Amino acid sequence: MSLAIRLVTFVLCLLPSVYLVYALGSGAAGPDPAEFIMHTTGEWATRCLLLCLLISPVRKWTGWTSIAKLRRLLGLYAFYYASIHLAAFAHFYVGWILPIALEEIRERPYISLGFTAWLLMLPLTLTSSRAMQRKLRKNWQRLHRLVYPVAVLVCCHVLWQVRSDVGEALIYILLFGAMLIWRYVRFRRQV
After folding, report:
1. For the chain, domain boundaries
2. 41-45, 63-67, 87-91: which range is least confident on average?
3. How far apart are the two ends of the chain, measured CA to CA in Å?
4. Chain segment 143-173, per-residue pLDDT in tens
5. CB burial of residue 179 (10 Å; 0-12, 13-18, 19+)
6. What pLDDT score was predicted for residue 72?
7. Whole-model pTM?
8. What are 62-67's contacts with CB under 8 Å, separation 24+?
């Protein structure tokens, strides 16, 4: 994989952050900047995770094996946007007050699912380097299968927080579902 493709991917994944800063500085974030930050970062965390899961099917269908080198970058960006999403929730909605945060997590299923997804992404991020891959060997691949429950939790998180229009949530569910079914079928053929 060329450095140019990795650089373009890096910049494209960074652009939503640049737009977020621009929108907040220019007033384009609308009347509720906190909601804008939450929505934008949540969407991009979900999109980067989806793109990360799309790498294997694209590699298999096209034979473009070096595309797998983008998986780590996309996964790190998914965690980056999920972390900003979580920090925005902690800042704007619970004021960094732990008892209030714990109460929100306990009482609102979509928050507990989102937080659980973030917690499961944390070890994936911490072990994403090649050095950790060598150190953990076969356990690295087992650990990184946590991305599948993360995908399910993200779908539930997105669906349960929707108040009226479930269209976007259903699109994400269908796309993530297709990625997971593809992997399941492939796994069953190997057994």
Report:
1. 3-190
2. 63-67
3. 31
4. 999 999 999 999 999 999 887 788 889 999 9
5. buried
6. 95
7. 0.94
8. 66/1, 67/1
**Pair 111, 104: CB distance under 8 Å:** yes
Radius of gyration, alpha carbons of the chain: 17
Separation between Cα atoms, residue 107 and residue 113, nearest integer Å: 11
